[in-house]
Amino acid sequence: MDVKSRIEELRKEIEYHNNKYYNEDSPEISDYEYDKLSVELRKLEAEYPEFSMEDSPTKKVGGTVKRELRKVEHDVPVISLQDVFGKEEVYEYVNKMIVELNKPKFVVEKKIDGLSVVLRYHNGELTEGITRGDGVIGESVYENLLEIKNIPKIIPSKLPYLEVRGEVYISNKAFEKANKKQEEIGGKKYQNPRNLAAGTLRQLDPSIVRDRNLDIFVFNLEISEGKEFTSHSETLEWLKNQGFKVSPDFTVCETADEVWDYISKVGNERWNLQYAIDGAVVKVDNLEDRKKLGMTSKVPRWAVAYKYPPEQKETIVKDIIIQVGRTGRLTPLAILEPVRLAGTTVSKATLHNQDVINEKDVRIGDTVIVQKAGDIIPEVIKSIPEKRPADSKPYVIPNICPICGEATVRDENGADTRCINSECDAQATRSISYFVSKDAMNIVGFGKSKVEALMSEGYIKDIGDIYQLENYKDEILEKNVIGREKSVNNLLNAINESKNNNIDKLITGLGIKNVGKQSAKVLAENFADMDEVANANYDQLINLPDFGDTMVNDIIKYFRSEKYHTIISKLKEYGVNVISKSSETKSDDSRFEGMTFVITGTLPTMKRDEASSLIQSLGGKVSGSVSKKTSYVLAGEEAGSKLTKAETLGITIIDEEEFKNMIK
Ligand SMILES: NC(=O)c1ccc[n+]([C@@H]2O[C@H](COP(=O)([O-])OP(=O)(O)OC[C@H]3O[C@@H](n4cnc5c(N)ncnc54)[C@H](O)[C@@H]3O)[C@@H](O)[C@H]2O)c1
Ligand SMILES: [Zn+2]
């Protein structure tokens, strides 16, 4: 490829990732990989000025400005930092400064991985807070910043005007908590603390900021009207005294050795810190020197950011196992001796396919180097053949499927190995297709092709996931997984309606061996709800009409299985009816007839599925989303957006105690 095309390609690629990162808070590549692309582009542009361009991404900072937030112009352009990578580059920079300046000192600080904000104080009072935006115009996030405890709202010094800059971030603990919550509500996990912090700060609802516990480190004083300082370290000390939480453990150095020692020390403790850092910043300390050095259009000359390479560790491949995907693809997975890597313990890494295994020559028993791709997904970088056991053999993916034992085939023009036995891979698809079929839950319009499409996109793995689909409606539409809006709406409506089916349809849908439509009806007539059916003993079942010994044993075996318990608690949670409408033993209290409840948050004593069974047993319906038709929202601790929606629609919100009073 010629240079010009490469430059154009890099620009496009970088613009693409900028948008993902800054505007959508959802990057696709690691920062390290991104930084390498930027460096390559900058070097090429410097070398070939004839291809230079005014609006190249190397000349711009950050993202665009979000429309809904108020725009504010910056007093001081909010610029970025020049990246440096190796030890040599750090020495080169520091030594160059030592030659250029008169006995300079350097402040080295941790580079916190969050997002930049500028805080403004008038006469000692916080009056404005702005994101970086494109460096010239940012967005006001003042109301949100008021919710961050560690930002002082009033400071002792009443300077007419003070402007400071800091990094808003979310601690590892708060990040984990937020992800746990996502898991509980079945939402998508956040990728990393930086993106969550950025996403949160740009929320329009300040209460979300309070919930998520954002924090800040202040790292620079920009303007202090009426007060002079001589050095950066002095400003940090002063800011500390004013109640700011400043750059943690910054240090003042005089030589390149000292600077490098501190950078290495921070690098070693990096993964034990309570917050994410992506580098260390080396800054010239003297403020006069800084002025003299000035800046380029994008970065100051008085500082550089050293970026730590992704952490790599050695470990041992204990085994290679084969997983069979829903499409029949065989994926080799390396089982590793657990190793602490970039903040988490890693014990598995995908080896993708035979070609990758061959190329890296990874064998069972090998010592390998691992790192996390994109700071998230563990990968094997290479094996170390010198440390290999003498009798080791190259690894070959088996030519029989580990699930069904049938012969596998290698894709003609791809690297993948597959099990093409339709019985094998179709298993999951088949059981879901059966669940939605006419005899079972009768979800109209849910054909096999839709089931397959939703499965291969990862939206459904089991029958419980069907009732979560409405949460992904926008995504499903956007990706055109199962057609247009109208057909998606029809399908979601049909799914919702099926929640009210009598339990004979549900029992049929579970696909219990030897239990068809007819036997399911009998079960529904003889027990009050799913729990009773599931707890029925041999004697109770064998006395039912046409129930034989084999069938009864199959029923008992099924309802005792882990699989059933997982599925039923999901179904209950999503509001699928589990109460028999045809049972003679049914309770005749239907005080909730015609009412719809939505349950959100964690209730103090009841489990959500308990509450939902109770509502249904008293004739009410439980729905997953708040609408005008909702009668009550039963809300517990940490109820999220559903609560907000209920408030806007004016729907009565009750807590557990009030709910208990209703059922007394
Ligand atoms: N993965 C992707 O797709 C993708 C895309 C775009 C950008 N990025 C990442 O975004 C970053 C580039 O953006 P950038 O312009 O913010 O540059 P930068 O992150 O390299 O450096 C500048 C920023 O560092 C922050 N910072 C933290 N602690 C600091 C301290 N003690 N002193 C000074 N500054 C401190 C400031 O907010 C400052 O704006 C890179 O890390 C890059 O990898 C990634
Ligand atoms: Zn198979």
UniProtKB/TrEMBL annotation:
Cofactor(s) required, per the database record: Mg(2+); Mn(2+)
Pfam families cross-referenced by the UniProt entry: BRCT, DNA_ligase_aden, DNA_ligase_ZBD, HHH_2, OB_DNA_ligase
SUPFAM superfamilies on file: BRCT domain, DNA ligase/mRNA capping enzyme, catalytic domain, Nucleic acid-binding proteins, RuvA domain 2-like
Keyword Protein biosynthesis found: no
Family, similarity comment: Belongs to the NAD-dependent DNA ligase family. LigA subfamily.
Keywords per UniProt: DNA damage, DNA repair, DNA replication, Ligase, Magnesium, Manganese, Metal-binding, NAD, Zinc
Active-site residue list: K111 (n6-amp-lysine intermediate)
EC number assigned by the record: 6.5.1.2
Name of the coding gene: ligA
Family matches, as Gene3D superfamilies: 5' to 3' exonuclease, C-terminal subdomain, 6.20.10.30, BRCT domain, DNA ligase/mRNA capping enzyme, Helix hairpin bin, Nucleic acid-binding proteins
Source species taxonomy: Bacteria, Bacillati, Bacillota, Clostridia, Peptostreptococcales
PANTHER family named among the record's database cross-references: CHROMOSOME TRANSMISSION FIDELITY FACTOR 18, DNA LIGASE
Catalysed conversion reaction: NAD(+) + (deoxyribonucleotide)n-3'-hydroxyl + 5'-phospho-(deoxyribonucleotide)m = (deoxyribonucleotide)n+m + AMP + beta-nicotinamide D-nucleotide
Enzyme category, top tier: ligase
Role summary: DNA ligase that catalyzes the formation of phosphodiester linkages between 5'-phosphoryl and 3'-hydroxyl groups in double-stranded DNA using NAD as a coenzyme and as the energy source for the reaction. It is essential for DNA replication and repair of damaged DNA.
Protein's name according to its UniProt entry: DNA ligase
